[in-house]
From TrEMBL:
Keyword Cell inner membrane found: yes
Regions annotated as coiled coil: none
Similarity comment: Belongs to the binding-protein-dependent transport system permease family.
Predominant subcellular localization, coarse grouping: membrane
Every ABC transmembrane type-1 domain range: 86-266
Transmembrane segments: 34-52, 90-115, 127-146, 152-171, 192-209, 248-266
GO biological process: transmembrane transport
Subcellular location as annotated: Cell inner membrane; Cell membrane
Protein's name in the database: ABC transporter permease
Bilayer disposition of the protein: Multi-pass membrane protein
Species of provenance: Winslowiella arboricola
Presence of the UniProt keyword Membrane in the record: yes
Length: 281
């Protein structure tokens, strides 16, 4: 019999190799790839800023040059204004965020574990969290004046109610099998809470704190913009009155830098505190 030659027959083709694996769903970049791409993004943004101002496409009143902003920030640092503003803002955000976070963790964990607390807390929090924080600013001034307690209150209103729901969600994500195992071993509710629920939920709780810290920075600046005599937001308002765009841009960049630093510090702390957590970062 003569052998028949099938059309298209031949050795199996090799699967095509993906040219850029980062465009594959679920493929995370390596640390070197991540840093390289992040640096390129910032270089492109800074270069675009430099070109736009250097060419005169954007007037300095609307967007001052990078060199002008840098010189202005150096001058404020030398005369002590910059450090005084940073110190005031850091003090306010640390105190207010710590109080809000501690309250949210306690209330959120209780509401996530016990049905009675959930019925009390969740509907009320769902109701209040949709109220605009900006609308509370004049009321906080009326209630407490314009001292630091007013700034604490604005930050607390802006972060606490959102944090509570995130804490409840973090506790709900603890596998029910973990709790069932604790009951099988005869552990009382108190031990199940402290030995099973909290260790399992704390990585997600820490993530919630890291995210809500960004909101806290926003509400801090809002409080300092409206009624304050010091701080980063206050300096932005004063600069606006005198059309000091270089100071405004510099302080906005400084706020972004401070937020980035605090975020990275919390990420580093997470890797140290929760080594038992094997989630993919």
């Amino acid at each position: 019999m003569s052998s028949l030659k099938l059309e298209g027959a031949g050795p199996p083709s090799k699967p095509r190799r993906r040219r850029w694996s980062l465009m594959t769903i679920g493929k995370a970049p390596t640390q070197s790839q991540f840093l390289t791409i992040a640096i390129i993004v910032f270089v492109v943004l800074i270069g675009s800023w430099w070109l736009a101002t250097r060419s005169g496409a954007i007037p300095p009143l609307f967007l001052p040059g990078l060199d002008r902003v840098w010189q202005r920030m150096l001058a404020l640092a030398v005369n002590g204004t910059l450090w005084s503003d940073v110190q005031s803002s850091l003090y306010r955000i640390v105190i207010a965020f710590a109080i809000s976070s501690l309250m949210a963790i306690v209330i959120g964990v209780l509401a996530g574990c016990y049905g009675l607390f959930k019925a009390i807390v969740e509907p009320l929090v769902d109701f209040i969290r949709y109220m605009p924080v900006v609308a509370f600013v004049p009321l906080t001034i009326l209630w407490t004046g314009t001292d630091d307690f007013q700034k604490f209150l604005v930050i607390w209103i802006g972060t606490f109610f959102q944090q509570v729901l995130m804490m409840i969600d973090a506790v709900k994500r603890v596998p029910i099998d973990f709790i069932g195992l604790g009951r099988t071993l005869g552990m009382p509710d108190r031990k199940i809470l402290f030995r099973i629920v909290l260790p399992a939920a704390f990585p997600a709780i820490w993530d919630a704190l890291r995210i809500s810290l960004g909101w806290a920075w926003t509400w801090l600046v809002l409080a300092e913009l409206v009624a304050s005599t010091s701080g980063l937001g206050y300096r932005i308002v004063v600069s606006q009155r005198y059309f000091q765009t270089d100071t405004i841009i510099g302080y906005i960049l400084l706020l972004g830098l401070l937020g980035l630093i605090t975020d990275q510090l919390m990420r580093a702390a997470e890797r140290v505190l929760f080594r038992y957590n094997r989630r993919r970062s």
